[in-house]
## 1
Amino acid sequence: MKCSKCSRKAIGVFQQKGYCSEHFKQAFEDFVFNFMDEKKLISSSRVAVAVSGGKDSTSVLNVVMKYMDKKGLGKPKALSVDEGIKGYRKETIGNVRDFCDKNNIELKVVSYREEFGFSLDEFLEEFNTHPCTVCGILRRYLLNKLARDYDVLVTGHNLDDESQSVLMNLVNADLGLLARQGFRPGLLYSDKFTKRIKPFYLVKEKEVMVYSLVCDLGAPLGSCPNAHLAFRNPVRDLINEREGKEPGVKRNIVEFFLSLKGDLVGMVEDDVLQECGRCGEPTSGNVCKACLIRESWEKGEQLF
Ligand code: SF4
C-alpha cells in the first residue's frame, strides 16, 4: 500500500487511509487537534496529564504538549502514580521521566506505598482480591488529589477503551456509569473534582501504537502482569472480533452512545457529594473507598 499523501510506502493506516511515517504523524495530530478544538477540550494553561508511561499516555502527553505549544498555552504538567507492581511500573515510570526530562515537562510521581502505606503487590499478597478493583479506586483518588489545582486532567483513553466501557455498562445494566462516560466524563460538579478529558476518544488503540512508534516515544509495549484478570478482556475480544469482520463497529458503538448521552444524563440522579469523614476528599458516602481500603490494610481485614 502507498501513502495517500505521497509516493512512499504506507507504514500504517489511520482513519482508513494508509500513510508513510511522516504523514501518519501529521494525519494523527491534525485529527486529534481538530477534535480538541471542536470539543473545546483545552482552553487554559492549567493542564495536567495522567501518564503511566505506556504508549497511550505517553502519546497523549506528546500530542497535548504540541497542541498547547501551538496555542501558546505553555507546557502541561505530568502526573504519575506508582502502584508498586514489580517488573512493570518501574520501567514505564522510567520512560515518563526520560520523556519529561527531554521535553522540559514538570513531573510529579506519587506511590501507593507513600500515600497508603502499602504497594499494590503487598496488598495482593495479604488479601485475595481483584487487583484492578483496588488499583482503580486508589489511582483515581490520587490523580484527583494531584490534579486539584488544574482546570483539566487529560487521560490517554482511546476508542477501544470507550467502546468496551459502553458495552460493559450495557451488559451490567449500569445506567449511572453509562451516563457518566464520554470525552469529558462525569456528572458531578465540584471544586474538588478536576474535569477529565480524553483527546484520543475517537482514535483506535492500534493507531495510537503506530503513532508512539513513529514518534519514537520509547514507551514499553508490555502490559501490567495483572492485565489478564481485567473484567473487560472478554468484551475487548468480542468487539475486536466484530471490528475485524465489520470495520467501524468500535466507532459505531461510541457514536451511538454519544447520540443518547443527553437523554441518559437526564435519566440518572446526580450523587450528593460530601466530604470523607477521614480524609476530607469528596465522596458519595460517609467515608471514601480509598480510606476504607487503607483501613482494611491497617486492620488486616478483607474489604472486597
Ligand atoms: Fe492496575 Fe489492573 Fe491496570 Fe494493572 S491492569 S495497572 S492492576 S488497573
## 2
Amino acid sequence: MTTVTTVKELKVLLADARSEGRSVGLVPTMGALHAGHASLVRRSVSENDVTVVSIFLNPTQFNDKGDLERYPRTVEADCALLQSLGTTIVFTPTVAEVYPVPDTRVFSYSPTDTVMEGAYRPGHFNGVCQVVSKLFDMVEPDRAYFGEKDFQQIAVIRRMVADLSYNIQIVPCPVVREESGLAMSSRNTLLSADERATAAAIYRTLERSRAFASSHSVAETRDYVVRNINSVAGLEVQYFSIVDGDTLADVASWDDAPSVVGCITVFCGATPIRLIDHIRYR
Ligand code: AMP
C-alpha cells in the first residue's frame, strides 16, 4: 500500500497501473473508518486490480461548522485498516491540494438534491458533487463505491455522472449495521454507550413499520414511525419522508413508484448527533 498526499504523485502511480491495463476502483471516504467503509473497500479490492481509497474531510459539504469540528479524525488507525484490506493506494490530500482555488461550481439536480438532506443541509450536496467530481477527475476510476447508508447521496451522484458523462460505474453497497441494527457511522463514536443503545430504536422502528405498512397507508406509516421514534427519550425525528426510490419525490400511495423507500434523520442525545437511515418498503 502506498500513501500519497498530492495529485501529482497519485497520477504517476495511476498512469503506471493504467499502462499495464489494470482496472481501478475508487472508494471516497472522510476517514474515521469502520466496518461499513471496510465493506466498500473489500468489494473494490475483489473487483479491481487497483483500489484507491481517499480520506478527505471535505469542508465544502459541511453546512454546520460545529459538525466539521466535531468530526472524528483517526488517520493512523484508518491506514492500518486499509492496509489489512489490501488497499493499493491511500490518498490523503490537504484542503489546499483539493481546492487550490475556491470551487465556485454549482451543481443543481432538483428534486434529487433539494429534498430531505438537501433541504435540511443547504449546500451539502453541492459540496459532495464538488469533491466527488474532483476525485473522479483525479483518479479516473473504472468503478466507484458508495454506501446505501447515504441513500440520497447515491441518487445525487448518479445524476451528476449522467450530467457530466462520466464513464464510471457507480457501485452501491448495502448498509453495514451494528448488532443492535444501528447503521454504522463515523458519527456513532460521538454517542455515549447509553445514546448508542437508544439510537438502536431508529432501525427497530423502521423494520417494524414494514409490517405496519402492509395494512396501512403511506401517511399512516409515516405517522407511525415519527410517533414511535419521538416517544423514545433522547430521540427526535428531524424528517421522515416516504419517497420514490429513484427520483426521491414524495409518494402518496404504495403504488406510486416501483421502488418506495422511507428516509429518516433523527437527532440523538445531548449534543445532539444527527443520524440518518432508511428502509425499503417495496
Ligand atoms: P463517509 O466517510 O461517511 O463519507 O462515508 C464514505 C462512504 O462509506 C460513503 O459512500 C458511505 O455511504 C459509506 N458508508 C458509511 N457508513 C456505511 C455503512 N454503515 N454501511 C455501508 N456503507 C457505509
